[in-house]
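Subject: sequence -> structure tokens, single chain

Hey, anyone have a minute? Need the predicted structure for the following. Not urgent.
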Amino acid sequence: MGHGISTAQLVELIKKVTNFKGEVVLNTIPKHPLDIAKLVGDYSKAEKLLGWKPKYMLEKGLKVTINFWKKKLNIAQ
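Reply:
Had a minute. Here:
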């Protein structure tokens, strides 16, 4: 179906999509014993039961979501 993406990779992708030039500091909170090290979503059950499939890949979905909120909040693009 797809593949996982790390938090750091997601941050870099969001920075790219939003053209953010600042620094994002990761890992500032200590890990806890029950923290999940890796979590990968899977839409196969939704596809099987509902016939649903994602409309966009991650980067396009982020762009669509960010543009929606920019318009909703009247932020210049």
